[in-house]
Structure to design on (75 residues):
């Protein structure tokens, strides 16, 4: 298994809407615009969700890779 597989999976869904859960249990959804080898992600049209409802809208958002618990990408 290649070490770059997670990055390749993210690169394949650039400009798609993804969901991200952070270690502090917050969930964000937005259009993936950038990712790097440290799993730092930039989302456009980002929203914070709580109980599957929009809690806040952020527009552009940078999430540090070391804070990410999981990423849900479209199939």
């Amino acid at each position: 298994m290649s070490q770059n597989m997670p990055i390749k999976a993210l690169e394949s869904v650039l400009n798609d809407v993804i969901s991200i859960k952070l270690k502090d249990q917050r969930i964000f959804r937005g259009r993936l615009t950038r990712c790097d080898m440290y799993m730092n992600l930039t989302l456009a049209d980002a929203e914070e969700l709580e109980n599957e409802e929009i809690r806040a809208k952020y527009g552009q958002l940078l999430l540090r890779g070391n804070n990410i618990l999981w990423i849900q990408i479209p199939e």
The mean pLDDT is 92. The chain has one domain: 5-72. The longest strand covers residues 53-63. Residues 7 and 37 are 7 Å apart (CA to CA).
